[in-house]
Amino acid sequence: MTNHTPPGWTEPETVSVRPEAVLDHDVVQRFLRGKLPQTDGPLDIVQFAGGHANLTYLVRFGEHEYVLRRPPSGPLAAGAYDMGREYRVLSALWPVFPPASRPYLFCDDSTILGAPFFVMERRRGLVIHADMPPAYLHQPEAYRRLSEALVDTLAALHAIDPKAVGLETLGKPAGFVERQVTNWLKRWEQARIFNVPLLDELGRWLLANLPRSQAPTLLHNDYKLDNAMVDPHDIAHIIALFDWDQCTLGDPLVDLGLLLNYWTDADDTPGRQSFAQAPTTLPGFYTRAELVERYAQQSGRDVTAMPFYETFALWKTAIVVMQLFVLYTNGQLQDERLAVFDQRVVALAEAAHTVAHNWVR
After folding, report:
1. Which of 154, 198, 222, 225 is most enclosed, with most CB atoms within 10 A?
2. With 90 as the cut, is the pLDDT of residue 182 above it?
3. Cα atoms in the Cβ-side hemisphere of radius 13 Å centred on 129
């Protein structure tokens, strides 16, 4: 089994496992048999094509499928790619929050597969990447409802009582935003393999313009369209959310800022449109301003400081992109999509600078 492209997808869902991400077939088979239901059939392993960092595999025993996730190989930034955290979060959320997939087991023994990993249920649906699949073109009403569903799902996540689901100790919400900026400054210093003066300037700007934080909630911390799976028969119905390894407690506007970071408007500059990851410029999709207004209506929160959070998200994403570029240049990741990420770092920094300096307070 190699590439598999479900109907409606513009990219293959799965590909043959990339050379740097190969799993030992026999080890996986011995470890998982008997620990998961229905593992008697022959084992096949392929890799999900989406994503740039964490390695996600489709593990099939006969006709029964699971998803296995593990971090990339080699040295990693402290606290990044936390599979134990993702397993804990999903274990708490899946009974009460439908987009959270059910996890089955977690292994923290790195001698098994070279890193901690976990296995969760496989869900089926459509993931929308940079281009809208042809079967879903020219549907502005569906795009409008999808925009609303993304915001409403985020507001629903933020409405969950962390204590009620046993996640009240997941993070340290006091001083969250300032600590985030400080920690990402450290990550920038560690990842810097060429200078980007705007990132230094923005780090100083963020520390000088910290807003008063909202009451803390659960944060997904990587909330964007291609981390959502939608129903192919109704793309406004969100079936699943992925990539919970950064979930924590903190200011909910950080999540909204990240959504804005990945959301391109039709009238954006060519520089910002150059790193678009979703087809949100199509007629019918909300603008970033409309997303913010919808979130304010659904959550009742004050959103007047959203330019700070959008700036932070763009700046942080530039640093993440640099980290991925470092992994690529070191040979830890061999995904050729990463070869131009040095250029993307600069484009993100420029976009962040524009948002920061257009903020009227």
Report:
1. 154
2. yes
3. 10
Are 352 and 318 spatial neighbours (Cβ–Cβ below 8 Å)?
yes
Distance, CA of 323 to CA of 321 (rounded, Å): 5
Fold match between domain 14-121 and domain 134-357? no
| CA pair distance 240, 46, nearest whole angstrom | 20
Q: Where along the chain do its domains lie?
A: 14-121, 134-357
- Ranking 169-173, 329-333, 343-347 by mean pLDDT, the lowest is 329-333
- Strand-pair partners of 33: 36
34: which residues sit within 8 A by CB, 6+ positions away?
Answer: none
- Burial tier of 94 (Cβ tally within 10 Å: 0-12, 13-18, 19+): middle
Which listed CATH number (3.40.50.720, 3.65.10.10, 3.30.565.10, 3.90.1200.10) goes with 134-357?
3.90.1200.10
Q: What is the mean pLDDT of residues 136-140?
A: 97
- The model's pLDDT over 83-137, given as tens digits with 9 standing for 90+, comes to 999 999 999 999 999 999 999 999 999 999 999 999 999 999 999 999 999 999 9
User: Residue 44 and residue 42: Cα distance in Å, rounded?
Assistant: 7
User: If you write DSSP's letter for every residue of 211-276 in order, what string do you get?
Assistant: PPPPPPEEE-SS--GGGEEEETTEEEEEEEE---TT-EEE-THHHHHHHHHT---TTS-HHHHTT-
Query: What does the block give as tokens for 232?
Result: 């192919």
CB 214 within 8 A of CB 252: yes
**End-to-end alpha-carbon separation of the chain, Å?**
56
Name the 3-class secondary structure at 180: helix
**For residues 150-162, average pLDDT:** 98
**For 14-121, which CATH class?**
alpha beta
pLDDT in tens, 262-295: 999 999 998 899 889 899 999 999 999 999 999 9
- With b for 16 or more beta-carbon neighbours within 10 A and e for fewer, the 35-64 pattern comes to eeeebeeebebbbbbbebbbbbbbbbbeee
| pTM beyond 0.85, yes or no | yes
**CB 262: neighbour CB atoms within 10 A?**
20
pLDDT band at 18 (very low <50, low <70, confident <90, very high): confident
Q: Which residue from 117, 57, 45, 52 is spatially nearest to 87, judged by alpha carbons? A: 117
Q: What is the pLDDT of residue 250?
A: 97
